[in-house]
Design goal:
heterodimer, A: 5-stranded mixed beta sheet, B: mainly alpha, binds protoporphyrin IX containing FE, binds iron/sulfur cluster, binds FE2/S2 (inorganic) cluster
Chain lengths: 251, 226
Amino acid sequence: MDLTLKIWRQENAQAKGEFKNYQVKGVSKDSSFLEMLDVLNESLVDKIESPVCFDHDCREGICGMCSLYINGRPHGPDDAITTCQLHMRKFKNGETITVEPWRAKPFPVIKDLVVDRSALDEIIQSGGYTSASTGGVPDANAILISKYDSDLAMDAASCIGCGACVAACKNASAMLFVSAKVSQFALLPQGQVEKERRVQKMVAKMDELGFGNCTNTYACEMECPKEISVSNIARMNREFLGAKLFSRETV
Amino acid sequence: MIKQITFSSITKKVIMSLAGLFLIVFLLVHLGINLFLLPLTENHREIFELAANFMATNPLIKIMEIFLFGGFIIHIIYGIVVQLQNWASRGNIGYKSGNKTKASLSSRYMIYTGILVLLFLAMHIYQFYFIKLGLNSSVFMDEHGHPLFYDIAINLFTTQPAYSILYIVLFVFLGFHLNHAFQSAFQTLGWEHPKYTPCIKTLGLVYAIVVPLGFIIIPLYFLIMK
Ligand code: HEM
Ligand code: SF4
Ligand code: FES
């Protein structure tokens, strides 16, 4: 495949970026999108030009490091997938592909296509600790959990913190991410001790960092590589309202 | 900004959704009365005037009127605040390749359909409520100087086709607003359930079609009958 890439280049956080066009030739349709970018970068290095910076780590869809807003969609034209799992067969020969970084005020560009997503980590940190029993080894079945709830908690916990939900949302809202992090504890007995503090603190942090307000467009769910459900957002709304209305502790 | 409008993102949306749900109930009542502008029964004019009179004089309705105006104002102010913050959240540079995620059309244009509804609201208040307050005048007054809303409405629909067409168009946009709004309000309030959410979505769609259509039928009838 021969392709034209229209890629956002930006020297550093302060610099003014711009789109640059690149031609790549002879790309295998079985290669992944990141492998295709590797080919481009090798050719740039050969020409002693600066390679395009992009985030990646596991390249098997589990770490959440790869990002890229490709042709109007986070992680490109496929569903429930990260960019490292996106294959070039999803594109047509001769196509022009526009590649942009995640755009959100709390995600400043570091270089080219790499953005700083530590805002998401800050939200998790703001949630604080979970109390755990110390002492002797508890019996494996001391705390009973229904299969249904443990499955829901596991689904919520599968969020990899990639930020595609923020990138896809027209409001740059982080509600899907935050609701997954709230739900994974709120659904389990072990998460009950701090649940009221946790939800209030995480929502306050999310707002403080400048993420948008959720207007329930559900674009996040459509683009989430882990198919995190927006029912988590409703759960977080319930948890938050309950805590705000009935918790006596001020956080 | 004052504290009240800097509520958390979720609280702001909850206030909006409660105000919005109140407006949804109000619309239904309003439609119920308006339909008697049509010759549904022999005494439709009497029924319309009885209802309009009840609305104008009942003390309970007077109290509800305050809530109604409050509801509109709160919904509109928060709608605008939420939208301004949401635009700012994207940062200085937007996406060149647009947003190709297939979120529903209604959900993407809520602020615009909302502003069109606001436009209608301003026009409507000027044409009806202002006459009641004496800030706008009409030739259709009874001997006690009370406005004859039946005649005012019929006159608008029968003599000004441009008004009727604008009215119809704006109600179509209200339909789009409601199509997203109904289920969105429940989601915001956390009323989500695998059994009931599909029902809420269907009910919302039915409401968003039936209610604006009910309003639209009235000018349409007069346009066609002429
Ligand atoms: C009869 C009139 C109206 C009704 C019944 C109505 C109803 C609703 C409801 C129920 C919601 C969902 C709230 C939520 O999920 O929290 C909503 C959202 C919204 N409305 Fe309205 N609304 C009306 C008029 C307006 C007007 C005049 C504006 C003007 C600015 C407006 C702007 C918005 C915006 C920006 C949203 C946010 C989108 C969202 O949260 O889903 N609305 N409306
Ligand atoms: S909710 Fe989905 S899209 Fe959002 S950060 Fe988690 S995995 Fe990524
Ligand atoms: S590189 Fe780890 S998910 Fe893509």
